[in-house]
Write a structure and sequence with these properties.
Order of helices and strands of chain B: HHHEEEEHEEHHH
Structural class of chain A: alpha+beta
Oligomer: heterodimer
CATH topology of the largest domain in chain B: f41 fragment of flagellin, N-terminal domain
Strand content of chain B: 5-15%
Strand order of the largest sheet of chain A: 12-19-14-15-16
Distance between the termini of chain A: 64 Å
CATH class of the largest domain in chain B: Mainly Alpha
Number of strands of chain B: 6
Largest sheet of chain B: 2 strands, antiparallel
Strand content of chain A: 15-25%
Shape of chain B: rod-shaped
Radius of gyration of chain B: 38 Å
Shape of chain A: elongated
Helix content of chain A: 40-55%
Structural class of chain B: mainly alpha
């Protein structure tokens, strides 16, 4: 549907031959007129070629072509006689379909391009050995092993502190890098919205000019203005995907989002920026026209703004959440094990890391209430965000996973504060006061990597030892008194219940009694802090049997061998045990434990997954961008094939029209000499 | 198809820029010697590289741990070797002292040497390692394990703890024996247990009192056997640690080979690729220049 092509027939009648007429008087005047009409027409044609040449590098310019037509012939005795040439139209070589293709291609390419650029920002740092978490995490666990090698040495404790600090610095760096990226996105959205407003205004202005020009020319299109407007719409499409609807008056109305009219004739609406009411650290886009304001952020797609928003939702947020999950998992698991140990001063271990926080943001329009979240089981943590919404019913809330849309109904039963059961590894504590429709954004892992620090600063308070130790009975001087071959292994604990033993009944003594469980049923009579019986049959179980004392820190130990009646074993608090490395070894074992993502991944695996996700997403985006860039280039080439200026072609046109112009000038010359001949004949 | 002049130039420029971008990537690879520069270059390989590096680092840490265990076990072994020699001498003295041809004065002289041996054994039992920690006090490495309480009583102040070090993903090894195990839990000829120091003390007392040393011979022998047994245990562990070190080293080399396959650049391939890209860039530049000379306007 190339309008230029369809208008082509009937052109080029400028070199119509000179026909000698019968009527001498009119012949001279007609020939002169014909010559002059040709001169004027070719002047226009040369002007147009010149205009094309001048705009060879103008973006969006469509080459123009002069359409020539024979003027109306006049009737003579011999029939109709030609009267010259005229410019019937100046056609813009243009195809609206191809232009729409370029516009859509530009929108997709810009969207993917900006996504790919932002993705590269993450790609650059997440696997860089000098910036990434992976090597620092390894060094940290190596230092924990070093502590297990030399539990009382100040040097190994100092090294652990400094490796911990480097690891925390990396975590902090990665978190800040993600947050900086988020701030960049905010600024990007702000400047893009400004540009959208400026372009929309410019398009509305040109719409006005076109309406006016079309009216003045009686319907002829102002070609150069139309090109300029098309180019502005392409520029706008690079910022946000738009649709356009042509109007009879020549205007193009522009719509964005879900059909919000951005440009209507010569009027432009404006987009504004507000803080996202659900999270004031992010910017939202609002559409404002005569009838009010509307948040259209979720509806914006394509172009730079679409790419930025998509990157934020699909890549930045999940990556930051995954990073937070690693950080929270590490801090919480390490703290839990550290608390089971005993430090160099003989005190129970405290938290090693400061506790990570689970983020909950109240909506700015909430009328009241408060919600907080706590981690309960890091293995079940997801990398998703959630929304807690107050329902209409009293005490009723709904928690929605914003990724899977799975919902959990919560009924506080009127209790305030009310703490929920575990949901995906965390609990919510809800304080009443929210009105129906109030909402809270719950992001358990988003900011967990932020601000984790060392909770202790004294080398001696690193808890490398276990809290309990076991021995067989000895005299006051330390000489063994047991006569059997029974032996007890050192106990491990799983909680701090009733520890230290000195605070809850003292040492636990296990005395072997062949009739402990009744006549002929051998076992240990347990006395001291705990009175019970542990069955142990040396005849069948001398290879080893593990016992657990749930009420004493969950102490678990293994008995082997054949004890004699009356042989006893004692479990005591582990005092002065500066060389004990059992808790350090347990801390080191956390490195290989699969404690995250439903028990499928260790800390390093989980971080490796982030690296792999970032890498594949970046690669995928780059490939998509390249292919869409290719499509755009093709669309541009197709449009250029119709609309682009080719200098050789214009040179040929110049030759052609120049020759015709010269010939027309000769026509005038001949007319002049005919006239002169006539005048000479009349003169006496 | 019509080609517009500006598109022609734009395409030629893009061709040059594309070639330059490819060359820049190859240049970076050549400069770093790495195939994968960013995760997006090869996401699967990037994760494997991360994992392999982690394995290598972990193995290196196991090697460090094994080194620590090896040093301590060597110290323990050499200490026990001295203790065994010492007991050997005591045994000789006990046998000698049991000889009827000796008089009380001779036995006094023997007793003096036994006293010195007992002192020396106490010294060995209170040996400190390179970190200044007692070797034989169980978990309580800063507590002096053995004291002579006088009158043939020798107190043990340590505990029965044994420290384990990880020398591979599934292997832990004890880096010590407690003093209780080595010096206190020695079977006595009279039944029950008796400390190695007490057997020397009793020997000395028997010699000083000009009594038969028959019991002491058995007790000293028993202590010597105990030292030999513990030494054999420690020696076996030492061997295990050394074997594990070799195994770790071999495993590390395997992994390093894998890592090299994943991340190291094939220089021959990269250099030839670089040359190819250089050629392509030159071609694109020449095409650009040639194209610039071609215009109808040149003939006007």
């Amino acid at each position: 549907m190339t309008s230029g092509e369809s208008a082509a027939p009937g052109a080029c009648t400028g070199d119509s031959p000179f026909i000698p007429g019968i009527d001498q008087e009119s012949i001279v005047a007609t020939l002169l007129n014909i010559g002059v009409s040709a001169l004027t027409s070719y002047q226009r044609a040369l002007d147009t070629a010149g205009h094309n040449i001048a705009n060879v590098n103008t973006a969006g310019y469509s080459r123009q072509r002069v359409e020539l037509g024979a003027t109306l012939p006049s009737l003579s005795g011999a029939g109709y006689i030609g009267s010259g040439v005229e410019v019937t139209n100046i056609t813009r070589m243009y195809d609206s379909f191809l232009t729409t293709q370029v516009r859509n291609g530009a929108s997709s390419a810009a969207e993917l391009g900006v996504y790919s650029d932002y993705a590269t920002r993450l790609d650059d740092v997440f696997a860089d050995p000098n910036l990434s978490l992976a090597p620092a995490l390894q060094d940290f666990f190596d230092a924990v092993q070093g502590l297990a090698d030399n539990p009382s040495a100040a040097s190994s404790r100092q090294l652990l502190f400094s490796e911990t600090q480097s690891m925390l610095d990396r975590l902090d760096f990665l978190y800040s890098h993600a947050e900086d990226t988020r701030q960049m996105i905010n600024r990007d959205i702000e400047s893009t919205v400004q540009e959208i407003n400026a372009l929309s205004t410019a398009i509305a202005d040109i719409n006005g000019d076109i309406i006016l020009a079309k009216g003045l020319s009686g319907g002829n299109p102002p070609n150069d203005l139309m090109d300029e407007r098309d180019q502005l719409i392409i520029d706008l499409s690079e910022l946000v995907s738009v649709t356009s609807v042509p109007q009879d008056n020549g205007a193009l109305n522009i719509f964005i989002g879900n059909g919000q009219a951005m440009v209507t004739d010569n009027q432009a609406a404006t987009l504004g920026i507000i803080n996202n009411p659900a999270d004031i650290n992010e910017r939202s886009v609002i559409f404002t026209n005569g009838s009010g304001s509307l948040d259209i952020t979720a509806q914006l797609a394509g172009g730079r703004i679409g790419g930025v928003l998509e990157f934020r939702d699909q890549m930045l947020n999940p990556v930051q959440n995954q990073l937070g999950r690693v950080a929270a998992g590490l801090a919480i698991q390490f703290n839990a094990q550290h608390r089971l140990g005993l430090d160099l001063n003989g005190n129970p271990g405290g938290d090693y890391f400061t506790a990570p926080t689970a983020q909950v943001l109240p909506h700015t329009a909430n009328s009241g209430g408060a919600v907080s979240a706590s981690f309960t089981n890091v293995a079940n943590l997801t990398a998703d965000d959630y929304e807690l919404r107050k329902e209409a019913g009293a005490n009723l809330y709904t928690l929605t996973n914003l990724t899977t849309n799975a919902t959990t109904a919560i009924d506080t039963g009127g209790a305030s504060p009310y703490t929920t059961a575990e949901i995906d590894g965390f609990t919510l504590t809800i304080t009443a006061g929210a009105a129906a429709g109030d909402s809270f954004l719950v992001r358990p892992t988003r900011a967990a990597a932020d601000g984790i620090g060392l909770a202790i600063n004294d080398l001696r308070t690193i808890a490398a030892a276990g809290p309990l130790r076991a021995r067989e009975a000895v005299t006051a001087d330390g000489v063994p008194t047991n006569t059997g071959t029974g032996a007890i292994a050192q106990p491990a604990v799983s909680s701090t219940t009733n520890l230290p033993l000195s605070g809850s009944g003292g040492d636990i003594t296990l005395t072997f009694n062949p009739d402990a469980g009744g006549a002929g049923i051998p076992g240990f009579d347990v006395t001291g802090g705990l009175t019970t019986t542990l069955l142990y049959d040396p005849a069948t179980e001398s290879g080893g049997k593990t016992f657990t004392l749930a009420t004493k820190g969950g102490a678990s130990f293994r008995m082997v061998g054949v004890p004699a009646a009356g042989d006893s074993f004692i479990i005591t608090d582990n005092t002065a045990a500066t060389g004990d490395n059992r808790n350090a070894a347990a801390l080191a074992d956390l490195q290989s434990a699969k404690t995250l993502i439903s028990g499928t991944a260790g800390f390093q695996d989980a971080f490796g997954q982030i690296v792999s996700d970032v890498g594949s997403k970046t690669r995928q985006m780059d490939i998509s961008y390249q292919s869409h860039k290719g499509l755009l280039d093709q669309a541009i080439a197709q449009r250029e094939a119709v609309s682009g200026v080719n200098l050789d072609e214009e040179a040929a046109s110049l030759f052609k029209y120049q020759q015709a112009y010269q010939a027309a000038a000769q026509t005038v010359n001949v007319a002049k000499s005919l006239f002169d001949t006539l005048l000479a004949a009349v003169r006496r | 198809m019509r080609i517009s002049t500006s598109l022609l130039y734009q395409r030629a420029t893009i061709a040059i820029l594309d070639q330059q971008a490819k060359m820049a990537q190859t240049e970076l690879q050549l400069a770093s010697g790495k195939k994968v520069l960013k995760p997006s270059d090869d996401p699967a390989a990037a994760t494997r590289i991360l994992d392999l590096n982690r394995y290598i680092d972990t193995i290196e840490q196991y090697q460090d741990n094994a080194g620590v265990a090896e040093a301590r076990l060597e110290l323990e072994e050499s200490t026990l070797a001295s203790a065994t020699e010492l007991m050997q001498r005591a045994y000789e003295l006990a046998v000698q002292g049991n000889n009827d041809s000796l008089n009380a004065g001779d036995r006094q002289a023997l007793a003096k040497e036994v006293d010195q041996l007992q002192e020396a054994l106490l010294g060995l039992a209170n040996t400190k390692d390179a970190n200044g920690e007692y070797l034989f006090s169980g978990f309580q490495r800063d507590t002096r394990p053995f004291n002579d309480l006088g009158g043939g009583r020798f107190g043990y102040n340590g505990d029965q703890g044994q420290r384990l070090l990880r020398i591979s993903a599934d292997r832990q090894v004890a880096d010590n024996e407690s003093g209780f195990e080595v010096f206190m839990d020695v079977p006595s000829s009279g039944g029950g247990a008796q400390s190695a120091f007490a057997s020397l003390y009793n020997l000395s007392q028997a010699l000083k009192n000009d009594l038969a040393t028959t019991t002491s011979i058995d007790d000293v022998r028993s202590a010597m056997d105990k030292f030999l047994q513990v030494r054999a245990q420690a020696g076996a562990r030492l061997n295990a640690v050394r074997e594990q070190k070799d195994a770790n080293e071999a495993f590390k080399i395997t992994i390093q080979t894998q890592l090299s396959k994943e991340e190291d650049l094939d220089y021959a391939e990269a250099v030839s690729r670089f040359n190819q890209e250089t050629l392509a860039l030159q071609a694109a530049q020449q095409a650009y220049l040639k194209m610039q000379g071609l215009s109808l306007f040149n003939y006007m």
